[in-house]
Every structure is written in C-alpha cells, then in structure tokens.
Amino acid sequence: MKEKAARFVVKKRIAILIVAVALLIPSAIGFVKTFVNYDILTYLPADLDSMIGQNMLEDDFHMASTAMLVVDGMEDYQVSQLKEKVAAVPGVRQVLWADDIFDNGVPREMLPEDVRSVFYSDSGTMMIISFDEPMAAEGTLKAIEQIKSVTGEQCFLGGMAAIVQDTKALADQETPLYVLVAVLLCMAVLWLGLESTVVPFIFLLGILFPILYNFGTNIFLGQISYITKALAAVLQLGVTMDFSIFLLHRFEEEKQRCPDKEEAMVKAISATLTSIAGSSITTIAGFLALCTMRLTLGRDIGIVMAKGVLLGVICTVTILPALILFFDRAIDRHTHPVLIHELERVPSFICKHYKGILVAFVALFIPFAIAQANTDQYYALDETLPQDLPSIVGTNKLKNDFNMTTTHFVLVDDKLDSYRLKEISDRIEGLDGVDLVISYDKYVGGRIPDDIVPDELRDQIDAGGKKLMMVNSVYKAASDEENRQIDQINEIIKAYDPTAVVAGEGAMTKDLIEVAAVDFKNVNIASIVAIFIIIAVCFRSASIPFLLVLAIEFAISINMGIPFFTGTTLPFVAGIVIGTIQLGATVDYAILTTTRFREELQAGREKMDAIRVTVQKCSPSIITSGLSFFAANIGVAIISKMDLIKSLCGLMARGAIISMLSIIFVLPALLILCEPLIAKTTIGWRKAAKLLKGRKKEPEYQEL
Fold first, then answer.
1. DSSP string for residues in 22-69
2. Average pLDDT per block of 10 residues along the chain, 704 residues long
3. How many other CB atoms are found less than 10 A from the CB of residue 417?
4. Whole-angstrom Cα distance, residue 7 to residue 264?
5. For helices 138-150 and 160-193, angle between their N-to-C axes, nearest 10 degrees
6. CA distances from 41 to 71, 163, 297, 411, 470 (A)
7. Over the range 431-456, which residues count as b (16 or more CB within 10 Å of their CB) and which as e?
8. What is the Cα–Cα distance from 527 to 579, expressed in whole angstroms?
C-alpha cells in the first residue's frame, strides 16, 4: 500500500505541484480572514466568576472594554471639547468625565473629594472611555488607534484596551521579522549539514506549503491567539525539518543502490513514511495534550501545531519528493563540503564512560527537577511588553497620578436595599489597599442629590439586574496582596448576595494564576502518558517508553530549572507549553536513536558496538535538526521586544541544544545499562540477531 502510494506520488509529481500551488490561494484567503485574538484573558473558562462578571460588563453595562485617557495641562473647557472629539470616534460608546456628574460650570473645588480624586490629579484630569465591542475586537482596536490620532502629546491612553491595541501593533510589526530571521538562520544550519547548496532552498520551499496550509485552515477554528500566530511558523519550521532531512538522506542512500532516481524515490518515500510515522504521531500527541488545559489558549496552540505537524508529514511525502526530483540535477551539480560530520570520538567516549554519564545524569536530574518546580513566574500581562509603549506609559501615569493601579468591578443584585449596598461599599473601602470605592448608593441621599444624577450615568451603573461598584486598588494585578484583597472583597459581597461577582483585570488575572497551576500538572501528565503509550505500542515494549521519556524529561528539567539558578522570572505560559513543545520536538531524536540501536542489534552486533554505530550514524541528523530548531528560535528571541515571545523562543532554543545533548549522551548510556531489561520486556527486540548468529560476514547498515 505504501509503495503503491509512493509510486503514485512519483508518477504524478507535476500534477501534485500544480495542485499544491493552487491550494495556496484558498490558504491565503483563510489566513487573511482568520481573526487574531490579542487578549489572553478571554481564554479563561467561561464558568469562572470573573468571566461571568466580564460578560455582564460587556452585555449589560457595555464596559467590558474600557480605556482611561489622562490629559495634562488643559483647562476644563478644553478637556470638554476633547471629550466630544473622542466621543465622536466610531466604536466609542461613551466617554465619562466629571461634567457627566456636574455641570461644567461647577468649579472642581466644589466637587466632593471622592469624585474629584477620581477625575483630577495635581497635574491633569482623566476621562473613562467605553467601547461598543470587546477590547480585542477589530472595531475597538481601530477606535483606539483613531483616538490616538485626535489627541495630542498632552494625552496618555492607558488601561487594558489600550495595552491590547499596542500588543497588536507590535506583534503585527514583528511577526514577519520572526519568520525572516528564522528562515535565514535555519538555512545557515542546513548549509552546514547538507552537501548540496540547493537543498536548503528546496527544504524551505517544501516547508512553506504546509505552513501556509496550516495558517489557512485556521479559519475553521474561528480565531487564533497572537502567541500562536507569532510562534506557529517558527515552531513548524523547526519541528517538521526532521522529516525533510530523513527523506533526503534516505533518497541519497537509495540512489547509490538503484540508478533509477524515480525508483529510488519510491523506496525513499516508503521508508521515510515508516520511519516518521511513529515520531510524528508522538509529536502530534504531545501538542494535543495542550488541549487538556482549561485555559483554552492551550487548545489554540495545541490544535494549530498538531495540525501543522500532520500537514508537514503529508507534504514531506508528496510535495517535497516532487520538488527534489524536479531539481535533482541542480542538487547534484551544486555541492560543497559538509561541515557537520558523523561524530567519530564521541561514540567510544560514551561506551567507555557510560556509567559516569549516568552518575552525572542522576546528580543533575534531582536538583534541576526541584529547581524547575520552584522557578518564579509572572502573570501580569503588561510586563510582557516594552515599558516605553504608549499604553504602558499611560497605564503607569494612571498608577502614579491617580493611584489607579488596578480597578475592580463589583456586581451585586440591584434588589438589595440601599443601606446594605452602602454597607458593602463601606466595608470594601475599609480593606487594605483599597483607595476608593465608587458606587451610586454611596453618594445618592448623601453627597450627591438623586435628582441631579443624569439618567445616562444611572443606566451605566444599574443594568441587567445588577448594580455596579468600581473599586480602585493600589495593588498590582497578579500580586499576592491583590489576590488576597480580591478574596476579601468576594467574602464581603457574597455574604450579602451569593450571586455577586468581581470582574476586571485583577480578578481575571487571579483566576488565571489558579487555572494555570492546575493546567501545568494536567498538560505534563497528559503529554507524558500519551507519548508513553504511543512509544510502547510502536516498539511493543514496556521499558523503552520509560527510558525515552526519562531522557527527554531530564532535558526539560535542565532547561526549565536554569531560570531558578539565574534568578529569571518566566511568563506563566512558558511553564505550561515549553515542556510539551520540547517533549514533542525531542521524541523524534529519541525514536530515531532507539530504532537504529535495535536495527544494529538485530544485525548481529553486540550492544557496545551497536551503540557506537548508532551514535555515529544518527548524530548528523540529530545535530542538523537540533541546530535548525535552535537557529529558528534563537533569532526570534534576540530580536523580539515582547518578553513573552522572547522568553518562549529563548527557552525553546536552549531546550533544542540540551535535548540534542541528552539524546546523544544520556539516552545511549541508558540503553547500554538497560539493554538486558529491554530485551526481556520488548517483543522481538533481538529476533533478527538470533537468525544471524554464527555468521562471520559483517552486516550491512542503513542510514535513516
């Protein structure tokens, strides 16, 4: 069946290339029409109180998307004129300022102290802008961009909506550079490891097809996150490069045996499909493990990357063979000396010192595993961005001038008596870190007469059966003090109304921390179990999956434990996804090494000799692939201004090198030590070796 399909690919290669090019058109359309979400908090589970409250703010109060505009050095009449300009921007629902509560002719000194402190600072004033659509919607992002164009240098736009818009602008600016740098550096590595000067260009052309197909088919998901958009091409480039290398090496090997290049390609496709089937399935399973996350960002990354690997496999055995055959003469004509050679001394070193390698393995694994579990992480999304972005400058100005570090939105039943609502307000205001509570019932009947409160303002704080309170906190989102404060607010409001909720950045970030902690455990367990089962089935072994996962987890622990010793704080996403990505990328090397070791044993070699040949023959593929993955990510890590992307790519780049070393040194040492156990727990492990027993003829080998 495989050979029949391979012959079809070779025979119809021109038609395949025509179809492949034609499919780029719908892929491009799908790519353009796929919505990109720049708000990570929207990926929180919908059943959380913070998300329920956020939906109420959006549906009933139309305040889920807000920004604050700080204006310095303007007279009140000028601010009022500016307010009208901002209110006229398409996508802006309402602009709230002091003149919505009192007539503009009332001197600010006559305003109640609490109201004055909300809208005025020593150097300026602030207005609150609400939008028609959620903060990540295209209409809101365009509105914020237009607001910036109608305001001057004296104006500073802050808040989550403004931060999301700046995130989009920066990501859209940098993403093409990520791909360009990754491609150039990856080509440099391929040039070092491959004999033909033309092949790196063919590889990248071949990988371009599945990358574009992957982005185009994302339209069926409805949307993808900006993190997925920024990383998917780079990850797909690095992860699926292995398959291209395996196909080319096998084709070159088959050409030496068979003068007919078409027949050689048929055999190469058949053999490559067999060799990459297990590794691709395990890689896909690793990415799909991200779908177990309650934070649906994991499902977003997992599905896109799993789909990308699958498309990469399909294109490797269809489009890439057609390209190689089409450019076969150019490949043979343009060659240069290869700089990445088979390792000569390392195999003997491993065989001689495998016990010492295993001692070092144990000595490093334990402390780094503990360090990995204790590496600090941050959850404040504004910390992932350059601090000189306009939205960050504006948000910092809110903190410094208005003491508005975080704003909570408290939603309680509007059927509660006025005095009870005032009690809630007073109790919250008495909490540590609460600077101010703004609520209708706090002022009506007290400092602000009910008959002068505009209907528009009343509608904005009383809708959908809930009343809205705004709580100004001096604590930073994601801090321990902030999270404790939110717990205290929840305790107060639920004593009066069990259905009351706290919404806003602080509450959502607190839930993000709690969800991420559970997701980290679930993803690790799911990915390890899935890959363990697949390896066990592929090798028909009870021990091999344990050894392979052990070697890979060792590399992951080293990679994720280093930040603890260097005092580096990682973005929370890194702790969840890096382990899975590194596991999925490294398992290819582990399967390649173990498969070759089995082949050498079945060919009649003793285990030490088998390991020497295995390390020597597999090392060029592992080193070329590992360095390609390193190169694809290190360039992005260097140029990115977004700490989230910089950290993820930096970890993946370092992880590629660590994984490469682990598979070259640690896994062979484990195979030497445990080979007798493997033989007892693996079906057919030495079967071929028994048939060859007593033969004096040196066995022939195949290079994968």
1. HHHHHHHHHHHHSEEE--GGGGS-TTSHHHHHHHHHHHTSS-SSEEEE
2. 86 94 96 91 91 88 84 88 93 86 61 74 88 88 93 88 90 90 89 87 91 95 91 82 82 84 90 78 87 90 92 92 90 85 91 96 96 89 84 89 87 89 91 86 52 56 84 89 95 94 92 88 88 89 94 95 94 84 84 90 92 92 88 92 91 94 96 95 75 39 37
3. 10
4. 10
5. 110
6. 28, 13, 9, 19, 20
7. eebbbbbbbbbbbbeeebeeeebeee
8. 9
Q: What does the alpha-carbon distance between residue 670 and residue 104 come to, in Å, rounded to a whole number?
A: 79
DSSP state of 511: H
Residue 111 DSSP symbol: S
Going from the C-alpha of 138 to that of each of 35, 65, 131, 393, 504, the distances in angstroms are 9, 12, 11, 23, 21
Cβ neighbours of residue 429 closer than 8 Å, sequence gap 6 or more: 436, 437
Q: Which of 127, 119, 147, 131 is nearest to 64 (CA)?
A: 131
Q: Quote the CA–CA distance of 198 and 196 in Å, as a whole number.
A: 5
Is 678 in a helix, a strand, or coil? helix
CA distance 95 to 192: 60
Q: Please work out, in degrees rounded to the nearest 5, the angle formed at the alpha carbon of residue 135 by the alpha carbons of 296 and 83.
A: 170
**Two structure tokens written together for 257:** 């045996």
- Tokens 């609460």 correspond to 434
Rounded to whole angstroms, how far apart are CA atoms 696 and 699? 9
Q: Which of 354, 363, 470 is nearest to 406 (CA)?
A: 470
